[in-house]
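ok here's Nucleotide-diphospho-sugar transferase:
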Amino acid sequence: MPNIQVLNNRGTIRHISIIAILLLTCLGLLHVFFSATRGLPHFHTTKEKYQYDDHTPLQHPNPNFKAAFVTYTKTDVDSLLKLRSTIRDIQDRFNHHRGYPYIIFSNEVMTDEFKELVSSTTQNNVRFEHLDASWYGYPSSIDKSKAAKAREDMKNIIFGASDDYRFQARFMAGLIFRHPAMKDLDYYWRFEIGTKYLTPIEFDPFQYMKDNGKKLSFSFALYEYHDTIPSLFPAIDHYVKEYPAHTIHKSEPDTLWPFIMDANSNDYNNCHFWSNFQIADLSFFKGPSYQHFFNYIDQLGGIFYERWGDPVIHTMGATVLLRKSQIHYWETIGYQVADQFIHCPSDKSIYKSGICRPVSNFDNQGYSCLPRFLQ
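and the structure:
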């Protein structure tokens, strides 16, 4: 007769084996599930179909003018994360109680999923605009072989080998102001994806620009890499001499010339305004004077034969066409690009409600051109 204790042990072992098999089966199923979903984007949901109405007219909350936030983006997951993050910052710091719309440009296909995930970060209008080759590509005047050689020669300079950088620079420097989506706007707030707004903005910068007659504004001023623009300043000098009737001369008061000129060499000192945070009166950029200037720059081909960026082109346009008093520096707005470019307002009543320290300011570093603008 079998021992009762042995039978009990056998039953226990059987139960343990069954439980072990069930656990291994569950683990196997989990492994299959996670293997299948490992490559999915961060914003994956179980929703089968996204729908976004891209034809709703933009709503303009300010009765005095029409203004919008404007940016360019790619459509990969990393760009989507950065775009959503920056819009969230803008909404939290300023726009949640203002209601200005957004216009998003891209040369890549923006799916309904992309549009819905971006638009979900704000309760305000978002307009998505796709750029074809007529807006984002080589103009017919460019010698592509010469452009290719320039990219090869500049491959060791940041963005020097990139044609995509140049397409974007050309669009943002001048073509954007001709785009139908910008036609009715009086002001734009250009923002760059991934940048951060660090402090509450309790006033309306658009209204400030209008009330004070400001045409252009900036947060950072710094030196451009001279190797990317060796022939730009001679071209600007030639432009002023060729069109003296509608340009501002170096000898006149209230100009930007001292900001960009080296007092000793009388040459360009490479200072320029960054445009990744730029609020502007679009009557300047869309006006005939700037458009004439941009056509001149565009025909020279320096965007492709060297690496002229849109910030330095904007700066040169402002130098020859605007007074210094028409340019505004946003000291009271906390702002960050990457890790090393930080501006924090000096007013404690502002920065104490934000997430920055004035001691971190890039403005205090030797690579900043801000002291030259303020002097």
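+1. The chain has a mean pLDDT of 90.
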